[in-house]
Write a structure and sequence with these properties.
Length: about 475
């Protein structure tokens, strides 16, 4: 059925993403009988051309429609309206309005090409993992019903402990490991367990805004500490807040600038924490998934005083859909953290945990990481090359490419405008603390798949920037 018969329109000034607008338009056409069961939709490439949006934007809308069982896709027939539609209320097709905070507008809901913080789904063995998850779910449903251990499944914790020794240099007992709902779930548990309300905390500047917000919600007073080529400037932190109770750092690969904390800074930071009896939260969000070199050992591997709380996540290495992470806490905190997770934040779905355990135990995880390193290295090189051909200064920045902007260019304005065209670059200035000097730039995620799609996305972003400046 031709797209014009659908009467699809997109509003680039709307706060709803373009892919969501397309999904809503097609859903309403199906529910209102404009599209009948079996009707063929335009290919996502054709519809992208007709609507003037990126291919990834339409593809994302079609994938959502397939998830909702409204359409089916096949090589022979393309994408068609499902013959048997699920019962649903038309009122549910409109999404809830987003909160107005910058966390939602700039970090959680812009979707499309260049989106930060998500892995390349086209390089993930989804069929293999789906079989593991299904098998794990069947196993648990056939067991006598009980509440699972809120600290996490013992088998997964033992597997993580074994992996950490080899990959991150951390020696710990499985009892020190807690399975969490990703990094944010771990951070919430830690802040409850430490009870540092009213005290000061060092945060990297620039640094991950949702983590800063979590510390503020927990009642801590933030001390923005600048980073340089060696990572967080510990001397600066000691000069301005020697008695801070906490430091939140990304030593393996600084977020968002990508450098690895030097050995000298690591030793200096650990010595400060030991003398002051302060805590360090190590956000090792990429683990060993570093492109330029073999991953440096974790900061926690150097901690002899029990001051580092290590947080890892499977969001970047497997999938953010899992919302699965873990933390390794010093022995002195085990009892307190155990009470917090039992009362407020028990470990996620045990079937999911055991599927991940199988993925790790059978060696699929390490093979997947090797593949991802090759994939990201190739994509980042292509992206930098295309951007430099178009006159930009860009460099590889961990699992993103940093596109530098000229002085006076508003990166947040560009990001907002780009989101209306199906792109999701992250404005670098948004990673800086309010009231502090900020650099302008765009952080471009590497999940965009394939050389041709990367080239088209870069050309589209270039067109947007030139339109505005």
């Amino acid at each position: 059925m031709p797209a014009k018969k659908l009467n699809l329109q997109v509003d680039r000034s709307a706060r709803v993403s373009l892919s969501e607008q397309i999904r809503i338009g097609i859903t309403e056409a199906i529910l209102n009988g404009v599209l009948t069961p079996g009707s063929r939709l335009p290919s996502w490439i054709d519809l992208a051309v007709q609507l003037g949006v990126s291919r990834g934007t339409v593809k994302a809308a079609y994938e959502r429609l397939a998830d909702e069982q409204l359409v089916i896709s096949s090589r022979a027939q393309g994408t068609c309206v499902a013959q048997f539609l699920p019962a649903r209320s038309p009122a549910l097709t409109h999404p809830d309005p987003l909160p107005g905070s910058s966390l939602y507008q700039e970090f959680f809901f812009p979707t499309g090409d260049f989106q930060m913080g998500i892995p390349a789904s086209d390089a993930f063995p989804s069929s293999l993992f789906s079989r593991m998850l299904s098998a794990s779910a069947r196993t648990f449903m056939n067991l006598p019903q009980r509440y699972s251990d809120p600290r996490g499944e013992p088998e997964l914790k033992r597997e993580i402990a074994a992996q950490l020794v080899l990959s991150r240099g951390i020696r710990c007992h499985p009892s020190q490991i807690f399975i969490t709902a990703g990094f944010t779930g771990a951070l919430g548990v830690i802040l409850h367990a430490l009870g540092l309300r009213g005290q000061r905390a060092w945060v990297e500047n620039p640094g991950f805004p949702p983590a800063r917000k979590a510390l503020e919600i927990a009642g801590l007073s933030l001390v923005p500490v600048p980073v340089d080529r060696e990572g967080i400037d510990v001397s600066y932190g000691m000069e301005y807040a020697q008695q801070a109770a906490l430091a939140l750092v990304t030593p393996g690969q600084q977020a968002p600038l990508g450098m690895t904390m030097s050995l000298e800074r690591r030793e200096q930071l650990l010595a400060w924490a030991a003398i002051n009896r302060s805590w360090i939260i190590e956000d090792d969000y990429l683990g060993e998934l570093q492109l330029a070199r073999r991953a440096a050992p974790a900061l926690a591997a150097m901690d002899n005083e029990g001051r580092v709380i290590y947080v890892g996540s499977f969001s970047k290495t497997i999938s953010p859909f899992l919302r699965l992470g873990f933390m390794v806490v010093p022995a002195i905190l085990v009892e307190g953290v155990a009470d917090v997770v039992a009362s407020l934040a028990p470990a996620p779905d045990p079937a999911l945990q055991m599927a991940v355990r199988t993925f790790l135990k059978e060696g699929h995880f390490l093979r997947h990481l090797r593949k991802m390193k090759r994939t990201y290295s190739a994509r980042s090189a292509i992206m930098v090359d295309v951007l430099k051909q178009r006159g930009y200064d860009a460099d590889i920045n961990g699992l993103s490419v940093l596109l530098h902007l000229k002085e006076g260019v508003n990166d947040r304005a560009i990001a907002r405008h780009a989101s209306r065209h199906g792109f999701a670059p992250s404005p670098l200035s948004a990673w800086y603390n309010d009231g502090h000097p900020a650099r302008e730039g765009l952080l471009l995620g590497l999940a965009t798949g394939g050389e041709e799609q990367i080239r088209q996305a870069c050309e589209g972003l270039d067109h947007i920037i030139r339109q505005l400046y």
